[in-house]
UniProtKB/TrEMBL annotation:
SMART domains: DEXDc, HELICc, KH
Biased composition regions of type Gly residues, renumbered to the chain: 85-95, 665-678
Protein species of origin: Callosobruchus maculatus
Name listed for the protein in its UniProt record: RNA helicase
Compositional bias ranges of the Basic and acidic residues kind: 69-79, 651-660
Top-level EC class as recorded in UniProt: hydrolase
UniProt region (Disordered), positions on chain: 1-97, 651-678
Catalytic activity: ATP + H2O = ADP + phosphate + H(+)
EC number(s) stated in the UniProt entry for this protein: 3.6.4.13
């Protein structure tokens, strides 16, 4: 029937034309009607897959009854993954035709299937017998089809479908692929990145040009300010806590920096409604940072304000923001989103800023504070109805922007308040995502208590030739209106607890205290002890509900309680004017947090006192603490100097010991050859 037919071909896989399960006399399961295919009963105990079976070898070395097939485990171990042997011609029949296929070898596994299940399925569906032989040249393998014309055609079609139209039916095998090394690679297209980026910038500019032009300049210098000589300006800045003003990234085209405004009237003489709001608030004169920041911001410049906490930074950027909103073209109702965005690191600081905004009523300007833990549904409702100022924490802000509830493309004035704290908390990705979505011609304000590299990098990325105003020094320093007291105590909880209890029981009626702890559990423990001793207090930390945290702030602010026990969540941005004392029950892990804790008292020109419980466990902070105390001209206990000296000597000793470790045996006695095991 077939010219190249071999009477005893080597068969890798074969199967019956009509497979059925039957039992033979030995109670074996038999596959097929004619030429038997014998499997042991162990197949029934391994039902994980149709081909997951073990064959009982024919011990006489034959091929099984009727020229059947058996699975040769020995050949599998020798290297063939599945090697099927068929009988010498059992069941081929006299009227069958044969047709040969050259199938790419990589598709043979698809045709056979797991344990031969696929080839059996092909035979059932087509009615033809299929044999996958060992005849292969590496690239292709010979597959033989037996049966009638219709069955063979059907089998060819099924195999063709399996191999995704790659199989060449009949004839010569497909040509071998040429060696890749001899193929000529198509020349790679060279990307002109300069042109590509220029197109992107042009497309972005065209998109932003669709929005109304931003108005930034609202400042008209008062004649009295203009008349100030350079010597007078320098003298004023030096007397007001050494105000230093400069361009952070100065260029040849940088504008001159405006003179400071010694009085409110000089800054807002064009805006009597603003002056009236300031009069209602009871302020007498601008704080140092306000006197220099207001003329800069009203002139439309970007500003970096660096000053200690409690120096009026919030009002420094808030009043120009109100004027900026009212000065933009078009009706506020038609803008489609807020004009001012203020980002803050914590919920408490965001709520504090919102409280300040609501103090100053100016031409119906509205605001909302959005933060995690607040009612999201209510926040979305207010935002979608329209608002002029959004004060937000980065997480919830990104949430509402991504959900499409808040459109920041209308924002023209951005404030990053306590930028150093936001970076410390890991908010830089969220900040960058938001800033990218706001038009690049915006006016940007950044406030910070310190000037670390991360804040400088952020300013360089998103600010245009900013004016940097810093009050005091760029070095870390505590406010000079606070008396700092260091108490050296034993490192025992009962000792510190007793000292705190004595202090709390001797508070006068007009005193208020914030007690800072290192852990949330510690804050709860202290609160319980105070309450058990008849002393009312409140706690504030991250495990408390937002409503409880807000109530704690209200209670300490209105005098319901005199003591607030808090973690560092309260160390930044909280503005409670009449806090008289700060107690560091647990000394902070870094000196920056110490500075911010101290800044919770002595605010708005008032004086306060900071008391820190310092133990041997805190001696690693002694050296930096001494620098802070000396800068503020505070008393430094002799024990603190001793701790700093001993800690430095201990570090040197450990460094030397560390150098001797790893020298192996003989380095210096001992079981392990010198140095401690750890």
């Amino acid at each position: 029937m077939c010219d190249n037919w071999d009477d005893s071909p080597v068969v890798v896989a074969s199967g019956p034309s009509t497979p059925n399960w039957v039992k033979n006399s030995q109670n074996d399961e038999v596959w097929g009607d004619g030429p038997s295919e014998t499997f042991t009963n162990s197949f029934r105990s391994n039902r994980g897959g149709r081909g997951s079976f073990q064959n009982r070898d024919n011990r006489d070395g034959g091929y099984g009854r009727g020229g059947g097939r058996r699975f040769d485990r020995a050949s599998e171990r020798a290297g063939d993954s599945q090697n099927w042997r068929g009988g010498g011609g059992g069941g081929s029949g006299g009227g069958e035709k044969c047709e040969v296929l050259n199938v790419p070898s990589r598709y043979v596994g698809r045709i056979i299937g797991r344990g031969g299940c696929k080839i059996s399925e092909l035979q059932t569906d087509s009615g033809a017998r299929i044999q996958v032989t060992r005849e292969s040249d590496g690239d292709t393998t010979v597959v033989k089809l037996f049966g009638g014309d219709e069955a063979i055609a059907k089998a060819k079609q099924l195999i063709d479908d399996i191999t995704a139209d790659v199989v060449k039916i009949g004839g010569d095998p497909p040509p071998k692929l040429e060696d890749r090394s001899q193929q000529q690679e198509a020349p790679k297209e060279i990307v002109d990145w300069q042109t590509f980026l220029k197109k992107c910038e042009d497309a972005e500019k065209a998109e932003w040009d669709k929005y109304p032009q931003i108005m930034k300049e609202f400042y008209e210098e008062h004649p009295a300010v203009t008349a100030m000589t350079a010597e007078e300006v320098e003298e004023f800045r030096e007397k007001n806590n050494n105000i230093v003003v400069d361009r952070t990234f100065k260029t040849e085209n940088s504008k001159p920096i405006p003179n400071p405004c010694p009085e409110f009237f000089y800054a807002f003489h064009q805006y009597p409604e603003i002056l009236e709001e300031i009069r209602k608030a009871g302020f007498e004169k601008p704080s140092p940072i306000q006197s220099q920041a207001w003329p800069v911001l009203l002139s439309g410049e970007d500003l970096i304000g660096i000053a200690q906490t409690g120096t009026g930074k919030t009002l420094a950027f808030l009043l120009p923001a109100l004027i900026h909103i009212d000065g933009q073209p078009g009706r506020r109702e038609d803008r489609g989103g807020p004009a001012v965005l203020i980002m803050a690191p914590t919920r408490e600081l965001a709520l504090q800023i919102d409280k300040e905004v609501k103090k100053y009523q100016y031409r119906g300007i509205t605001s909302i504070c959005i933060y995690g833990g607040g009612n999201r549904k209510d926040q979305v409702k207010v935002v979608t109805q329209g608002v002029d100022i959004v004060i937000a924490t980065p997480g919830r802000l990104n949430d509402l922007v991504a959900a499409g509830h808040l459109d920041v493309r209308t924002v023209t004035y951005v404030v990053l308040d306590e930028a150093d704290r936001m970076l410390d908390m890991g908010f830089e990705p969220q900040i960058r995502k938001i800033m990218y979505a706001i038009r690049p011609t915006r006016q940007t304000v950044m406030t910070s208590a310190t000037w670390p590299p991360g804040v400088r990098r952020l300013a360089q990325s998103y600010m245009c030739d900013p004016v940097q105003v810093y009050v005091g020094t760029l070095d870390l320093a505590a406010t000079h209106t606070v008396t700092q007291v260091i108490q050296i105590l034993e490192d025992k909880d009962e000792v510190k607890m007793q000292v705190l209890m004595d202090f709390a029981q001797n508070l006068s009626a007009d005193q208020k205290v914030i007690v800072f702890c290192g852990r949330k559990s510690r804050a709860d423990e202290l609160a319980s002890e105070l309450v058990l001793n008849g002393i009312s207090c409140q706690t504030m930390h991250g495990d408390r509900d937002q409503s409880d945290r807000e109530q704690a702030l209200l209670d300490i602010a209105d005098g319901t309680v005199q003591i607030l026990i808090a973690t560092d969540v309260a160390s930044r941005g909280l503005d409670i004017d009449d806090i008289t004392h700060v107690v560091n029950y647990d000394f902070p892990r870094n000196i920056e947090e110490y500075v911010h804790r101290v800044g919770r008292t002595g605010r708005a020109g008032k004086y306060g006192e900071s008391i820190s419980y310092f133990t041997r466990a805190d001696w690693g902070q002694a050296k930096e603490l001494i620098s802070i105390l000396e800068e503020a001209e505070q008393y430094v206990p002799e024990e603190l100097h001793d701790m700093a000296d001993r800690f430095e000597k201990m570090k040197e000793r450990r460094e030397k010991e560390g150098g001797s470790r790893g020298r192996g045996r003989g380095g210096g006695g001992g079981r392990f050859g010198g140095g401690r095991r750890w």
